[in-house]
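Student: I would love a firmer grasp of how sequence relates to backbone shape in proteins. I am handing you a single protein, as its sequence and its fold in token form. I am told such tokens are a discrete way to write the fold. I hope you can help me see how the letters and the tokens relate. Take your time, and here it is.
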Amino acid sequence: MSSLTLSQRVAIAINAQGHELWPAIAGFGLFFSLFSGYFMLRPIRESMGIMAGVEHLQWLFTATFVVMLLAVPLFAWLNSRVPRLHFIDWVYGFFALNLLLFAVLFLARDESVWLARGFYVWISVYNLFVVSVAWSLMADVFDSEQSKRLFAFIAAGASVGGLAGPALSALLVGVVGPSGLMLLAALLLAAALLLKQVLMRWREQGGAGRAGAARTESPRQPVPGNPFSGMTRVLASPYLLGIAGFVILLATASTFLYFEQARLVAELFPQRDDQVRVFGVIDFVVQAGALLSQLFITGRIARRMGIRVLLACVPLLVCVGFVGLALMPTFAMLAALMIVRRVGEYAFVRPGREMLFAPLDAESKYKAKNFIDTVVYRAGDAMSGWLKSLLDMVAQGAWLVALVGAACAALWGLLGWYLGAQADDKASARQGVAQT
């Protein structure tokens, strides 16, 4: 062991083979860039949501869903016209220009309620799109076997970015203001584009496009299909419909907790600076916990126990947490459950969810996946937002919401177990075809 080089030691530590080390680091860096930029802006988004009115959050969620309905066909159309090698260049370039526009608007009218609402909706769209496309890239670059070993480490880049982003925001917001943070986020998008080039070049040498790997479509061609083929492919596939259901249940649990968090923070911390500080502390704890899990636990669970355990364990913990919230509806209990849910999502559910797409074709990885990650996710947000409002009208306090949330989390866990088993079977079958 003492004769191993530093790079060999690092490769062993992250479950990578020697030739996969630098691509894995590039993937880590890409997610670090994306999440550093997003988490610099996230505390601003949360305070904008409160500024726009906690009682109007369900309208903001609905507006986000409507924007998704309009945007997804446009991005799918672009995906059918632009080779996969360059699709992300267009997507990230578009969002970088949007960031520059918001930077100018915040310099001119930083107290506008409508600007706050617009920014809240836009960044909710931005976050889902840039992350969904990044995971489509990873599912395209790495094959199923590689994804089980490497996706946890790559996802850790998001957690490190989630730690760095709030820290940078706290250090720089007093100097450069919100507009300066938006400019920096645009530069980080440009850095992600450079790392994407590295990954797509390696794909043909050691990744999913290498000689001897399972057959896959050329990234030099656009993804087949029309602007609505992502939706039609989901509706035609029980497997993809199952993933869509999994995402809706995830969004329901997340939205219930998010609305309760916003309500309690608005009541207990009326000043915007205090609100940003509370959200920042929660974000820091979440990202630190997710990072430790991603580095030391996730990959080992995926290899030894399969994807089903990654997808089922967190929902069951959330189910227990909702029952605890029904019995003891305090901010401390809510914050603890929120942290467990988010740590579990980043460390286990998200990597496991992305592994579900690794055995699939390019149209499923880009179009169907993007439809699920954006339209389906935000539809779940919007529906659960209105359901939360209805439950609040029926019963005062958090107990009824918590019980409904517990039931949804139990279904979420059962579906995760089923999908993980299906993914493991698909990966085994595809590897068998490749070997023959």
Notes: The first helix runs from residue 6 to 13. The chain has 13 helices and no strands. The chain has a mean pLDDT of 85. The radius of gyration is 21 Å.
